[in-house]
Amino acid sequence: MENSFDSFIERIEITMGKVPLTHKMKFIKEIETQLEELKLSHPELSENDLLVKLGEPELLALKYIKTHRLSHLNSKGTGLFKWLITGILIFFSSIILFTVIAGVALYNMTPILEESSNNTKLFGGLITLPNTGQWYIGGHSLNSDDETLNFKGSMGVNKDKIQAFNIVFSNMDLKLEPSKSQTLSWDCEISQDLEAHFSDLKITEKGEQLNLNLADFQGSECKIKIPDQLNLIIRGVNGKINIKELRANLDVKINNGLVKFNPHKSEKYVYQLKVDNGQIDTFKSQYDEKAYKIKIYVNNGQIE
Known about the structure:
Helices cover about 25% and strands about 40% of the residues. By secondary structure, the protein is an alpha/beta fold. The chain folds into 3 domains: about 5-65, no CATH class; about 80-140, no CATH class; about 150-304, no CATH class. The protein is globular.
């Protein structure tokens, strides 16, 4: 499906959720201005190419929300702490960029990603993703051991009508497995701090796409079973994603974290993988007209 300005804006609106309308309109106006400027500077490019240059709409929206300290949820007693952690992450991200530029010697002293049986560490432990699901950035926990709420359900998917499932998140431990039928099912643990807004959480349908927006439910853990032929679009900031035996196309983009992809033994895949700072395991593409397209991009982290 090709990009278009209308669908680009729709994806922004879905990601922004219940952000005040004035902010939505302001941000969309900024996007329109940026697009017009790109048209003037790159008259040879089509609108689709210009939208690609603007960036992923979900990540642009998440950046705007964080920059302006917005949310469609008002978590009790956690907002200040979460934004403090965001500030710490931005601060250390600058240090990380300087470290990369500084040279190979310093890189060898502080590995970008270290994985053990207990956890996965990025940047010498700045970001820690233990296998228990407890997340730390700069030594601070993003999800505590407090009681959680369960967001659980299932729905039949008409593959002739629904083509894709879009997931957006800020901080998440996500496990994706094949469904044994054309049923999409999910089982998520959500922080109890968000109990007052728990009813806002739901899977929505827009055109040929299902959407799950977890951008404000930080520190969530989800196990989702995916029907065959339901293409996946995943956008996030910090994530640990485990994908098993997928029989569909995949498009993942995250800023920091680990993406594990375990192919189905009887299926063929064509891989397009990229990590700016980190490691990529070897994946062999099998070029075939029936091969699934697997696109994974991680800014800082690992694909394995």
